Amino acid sequence: MPNARENPHEYPRRILIAVTGLSPQIVTETLYALAVSPTASAFIPTEIHLISTRSGAEKARLALLSEEPGWFHRLSRDYALPPIHFSADTIHVLEDVNGKPLEDIRSPEDNRRAADGITGIIREFTADPDCALHVSIAGGRKTMGFFLGYALSLYGRPQDKLSHVLVSEPFEASLSFYYPTPASHVLEMPGGRLVDSAQARITLAELPFVSLRHGLPEALLTGRASYNETVEAARHALAPAELQIDLAARRIRAAGKTFPLPPAEFALLSVFARRALRGEAPLPAPAKESPDADWKNRYLVELRSIARPLGDLDGTAHALRNGMDGGYFSTHLSKLNKILRRELGPAAGPYLISDGGRRPRRYSLGLRPSAIRYDIPETAVRG
Q1: CB half-sphere exposure, 133, CA atoms < 13 A
Q2: How far apart are CA 362 and CA 283, in angstroms?
Q3: Per the database record, which ranges form the CRISPR system ring nuclease SSO2081-like domain (predicted)?
Q4: Please, are residues 146 and 140 in contact by the beta-carbon 8 Å criterion?
Q5: 1-44 pLDDT, tens per residue?
Q6: 100: Cβ–Cβ under 8 A, 6 or more apart, which residues?
Q7: Which CATH class is domain 241-380?
Q8: H/E element holding 307?
Q9: Helices 227-238 and 142-155: crossing angle, nearest 10°?
Q10: Taking the domains of the chain in order of start, what are their residue ranges?
Q11: DSSP annotation string for 121-142
Q12: Which phi and psi angles does 66 have, rounded to 5°?
């Protein structure tokens, strides 16, 4: 039996989201295409949410939700649709930099505000595992449709769908057409031509999209990151892995993010980074209860290279006086990998110290030499 996550119509919360401008018809046209269907898998939304500018929101409210003409209510009655939550409260008006309703998208700042607003709405809805989204990019300005589609690409899940609605000629050009009526309903076209809306045909063109959600750190999935920040995180997650090591500042740059590491974990990472730079073989861990002098020496070399500003290393040297044992190694390796996963999310994989996945365990950093760079000359530290 197919997994319910692959069947959007089985989700308890089903949301139709659209951007609209001065043509609110796309809402009823898309709803008709989704819900008025002979198949058992018709996607009948439980909620409809619109994203628009101030003037677009007002036109949608008057055309769709008023008593007359109230085209959304007419469609629901004509086809006996179940209750769908759609009201002025589910029409989201984009805001300008001052928090006022956006009149139109005319400047770079308007563009940025629209992108952030649309991305935030999609991020919020996709955080609910019990909902499926159907996103229509048929209405609004082209930039709004682009941002809506791209936001779904960033955050979308398997149950979420993207579409564009197509209306047959000559109805596509009519501002009076809202959906194919079940009974004859005559419309006057520009030029005086009369047509029957019952003869209209609507096609929903589903648009496949590549989901980048798996490449985003958890903080971006649950936080309030901007559109640009989210796109940048996805870009770095998909880019070839590169590691930049700044010994003086005791920080690294990985997957486009710069962050510090504690000295002990920094030194351990540097051990493996230098070996990867030199093309050296993976290393076994120190034995559990048998201190290893070679491991102690290579580790202390790296620790001294970053500890000069920290002062005395006598405590660490004393703890490792007989060598490094497996307990010390595994504790700091676990902490290092935990920090990398926390900071980089799904992009952490290439930067983790791997045990090779089979016995006997051999540890290494899997990056190619050209992907590793130190911010000081290689000769400054001898390994």
Answers
A1: 28
A2: 5
A3: 23-232
A4: no
A5: 344 456 899 999 999 999 998 889 999 999 999 999 666 568 99
A6: none
A7: mainly alpha
A8: helix 293-307
A9: 50
A10: 4-234, 241-380
A11: HHHHHHT-TTEEEEEE-SSS-H
A12: -75, 170
pLDDT tens digit sequence for 288-314: 888 999 999 999 999 988 865 555 566
Q: What is the DSSP string of 314-336?
A: HHHHHHTTT-B-HHHHHHHHHHH
Beta carbons of 292 and 325 less than 8 angstroms apart: yes
Give CA angle at 53 (25, 204), nearest 5°: 30
Spatial contact of 117 and 144, defined as CB atoms under 8 Å apart: no
Structure tokens of 27?
A: 């809402």
Q: How is residue 361 written in tokens?
A: 């365990």
What's the topology of domain 4-234? Rossmann fold (3.40.50)
Q: Tell me how far apart the alpha carbons of residues 256 and 219 are, in angstroms, rounded to a whole number.
A: 15
Evaluate whether 278 touches 265 at the Cβ level (below 8 Å): no
Tokens encoding 353: 């110290």
Task: Kindly list the distances between the CA atom of residue 92 and the CA atoms of 18, 114, 117, 182, 310, in Å, as whole numbers in the listed order.
Answer: 10, 11, 9, 31, 53
CA 78, CA 68: separation in Å to the nearest integer?
A: 15
With residue 10 as reference, give the H or E element that holds it.
none
Per the CB < 8 A criterion, the answer to whether 363 and 285 are in contact is yes
Domains 4-234 and 241-380 share a fold: no
Structure pTM?
0.67
